[in-house]
Amino acid sequence: MVKLSSDDISFFTSKVLYKPSDDEVKLVEEKIAVLKREKIVKPIVFIGVTSSSVVAGALKTLEAAKEYIDSSELDIELVEVGSIGLCSFDPIMDVQLPGKSRISFQKVTADLVPSILDGVLNSYLLEEHVLGQYRNQFLQPWPNVPYFDELSFFSSQYRVLMANCGVISPNSIVDAIAYGAYKAFANVLRNHTHDEVCKIVEESGLRGRGGGGYPTGIKWKKTLEEPADQKYFICNADESDPGAFMDRLLMESDPHLLIEGIAISAYAVGASKAFIYTRNRYEFTVLRLEQAISQAYELGLLGHNILDSGYSLDISIRKGPGAYVCGEETALIQSLEGKRGMPTLKPPYPSTNGLFGKPTAINNIETIANIPLILNNGSEWYSGIGTEKSKGTKLFSVSGKVNSVCMVEVPLGVSIAKVVELAGGVAKGRKLKAVQMGGPSGGCATPELLNTPIDFETLKELGLSMGSGGISVYDDTVCMIDMVKYFMHFIQKESCGKCIPCREGSRRMLEILDNITRRPVTDDGHNTLERFKGVIHLESLAEVMRDTSLCGLGQTAPNPILSTLKYFREEFEEHIFDRKCTAAVCRNLRTFYIDVDKCTGCAACAKKCPTNAIIGTPRSPYFIVEEKCIGCGICEDVCKFSAVFFK
Amino acid sequence: MEAKILNLLERYSHASIESLIPILQDIQDEIGFLSEEAIVQVGKHLQMPTSKIYGLATFYNQFRFHPKGKYHIQLCHGTSCHVMGAVNLLEIIEKKLKIKAGQTSRDGSYSLEIVPCMGACAFSPIISVNGEFHGNLNQQELENILDELVND
Question: What ipTM goes with this model?
Answer without folding.
Answer: 0.95
